[in-house]
Design a protein that fits this description.
Layout (H helix, E strand, L loop, with lengths): L4 H11 L11 H20 L25 H16 L8 H18 L34 H8 L1
Amino acid sequence: MSYTKRQIIEAAFEEIGLAGHVFDITPQEQQSAMLRLDAMMAMWNGQGIRIGYNMTIDPLNADPDQDSGISDMFTEAVFLNLAIRLASSYGKQVPRTTTAPAKQAYDMVLAQCMATPAQIQPNVMPAGAGNRYRRFTRPPVDRLQAGPDSLLDLEG
């Protein structure tokens, strides 16, 4: 079970010095922070960073106690980057002790989530030593879109 959205938002507020046990965070501030969290995660999702976040379907009736769906190894990156986004709204300046780990955590998320596309070799590329039957490589065939004739050609 991962952190709830409320726990992520509280951690972000703590990071900018507005901890819930010292400052009372109003429901409106909680809702605003949740909207920013959803917007940040939608932007990451659009960039190809998919970490399992459960998007809010209706922003006006969002449940802050909903499970975030984020793996524990990505939680720090989310709340640190959310803290940076929230700080300007509260007149807070983000210290270097927050921005540097936020950048490192975001880079770690990128490294974990971004897949390197496979490189397709051209038909004229030699297959390599010890390959007696095929002298040149062939581009990969998508078996779902290939017809039966091309699959037989691959086996022979």
